[in-house]
Specification:
Layout: H1 9-26, E1 29-33, H2 39-48, E2 52-55, H3 59-68, E3 72-75, H4 83-96, E4 101-104, H5 112-121, E5 128-132, H6 133-142, H7 168-178, E6 181-185, E7 188-192, E8 196-201, H8 213-225, H9 230-251, H10 255-268, H11 271-275, E9 279-283
Parallel strand pairs: 1-2, 1-3, 3-4, 4-5, 5-6
Antiparallel strand pairs: 6-7, 7-8, 8-9
Length: about 280
């Protein structure tokens, strides 16, 4: 773990601010293979955060854009048979070209297509894994990196059945295996690079009433992965979503107006404001 930079609260906030400001300035191309249910939200969130979005699913397009893009986002939410070829191919292309990429293992444990894809991705791991606690635990088990002391993790659809803190050991094991960062989303987000754990506070309960917040967060983390290390990129994405949700809640009347106000906040918030999101850093025990 000696090669992993260790942050203080001030240095991490400064690194997040630089990553966000750079993304807003250079508009990094961040292609995605993402959930068809939330593709619009993912693309618009990436654009609002300063990225340049491109939504694809074919293997030849994916590899070409992986080489052209500054980063890449893969979401397993709604899969087609073609994804058994395209997703492992783009992961291999990203790793070969040193392009950072983000994996959201939505629906892990459901179906043969996901099983095949995730088995292949173990050999070309992502820079950032983002998911809820149940997904992170299940991925660490699937890749034989961590096992619970009790019963195996059960994932019901896309919803978490475990608390964020229950995924800490699994997240650390995943981060040490990938050499990147793992982000566990929840009421208090937990993000680790295997050496340190960052916990960020904020957000709104309305985020759970609108489909796509987790998916789009992964897409925004991919935007920032083009301008920062995996830990900083994941923290910047989490901070942006927490602050934007807090502000959107003040002027919204329900889920629909909240989503609109949230995207406006993502587009309008400044780097320093985003980096002011409350967080703590602790070393891994």
């Amino acid at each position: 773990m000696a090669d992993i930079p260790l942050y203080t609260p001030d240095s991490l906030a400064q690194a997040m601010e630089v990553a966000i400001e750079t993304a807003q300035h250079i508009h990094p191309l961040t292609p995605s293979i993402t959930n068809s249910v939330t593709v619009d939200f993912v693309a618009n969130a990436q654009l609002a955060a300063g990225g340049s979005a491109a939504m694809i699913y074919l293997a030849d397009e994916a590899c070409g854009l992986a080489e052209l893009g500054a980063s890449f986002y893969v979401n397993l939410g709604t899969l087609l048979p073609v994804h058994k070829e395209s997703i492992p191919a783009v992961a291999a292309c990203c790793n070969a070209s040193a392009t950072p990429w983000v994996l959201d293992p939505v629906g892990i444990g459901l179906g043969e297509v996901r099983e095949v894809i995730l088995a292949a991705l173990r050999h070309t791991p992502p820079s950032i894994v983002r998911g809820n606690a149940s997904e992170i635990r299940a991925l660490a088990e699937t890749w034989d990196l961590w096992h619970p002391t009790g019963d195996a993790t059960v994932v019901h659809g896309v919803d978490a059945t475990d608390e964020v803190e229950s995924a800490e050991e699994a997240a650390v094991a995943l981060a040490r295996f990938t050499g990147g960062a793992v982000a566990v989303s929840g009421a208090q987000d937990l993000i680790t690079d295997g050496a340190q754990i960052v916990r960020l506070r904020g957000g709104s309960p309305l985020m759970e009433r609108i489909t796509g917040f987790g998916c789009s967060l992964g897409g925004v983390m991919a935007v920032y992965a083009a301008t920062a290390t995996p830990l900083v990129a994941a923290c910047a994405g989490s901070a942006l979503y927490n602050i934007a949700a807090n502000e959107a809640l003040k002027i919204s009347q329900g889920p629909a107006s909240f989503k609109v106000a949230f995207l406006d906040q993502v587009a309008n918030l400044g780097p320093r404001t985003i980096a002011s999101c409350p967080f703590t850093i602790t070393p891994v025990r």
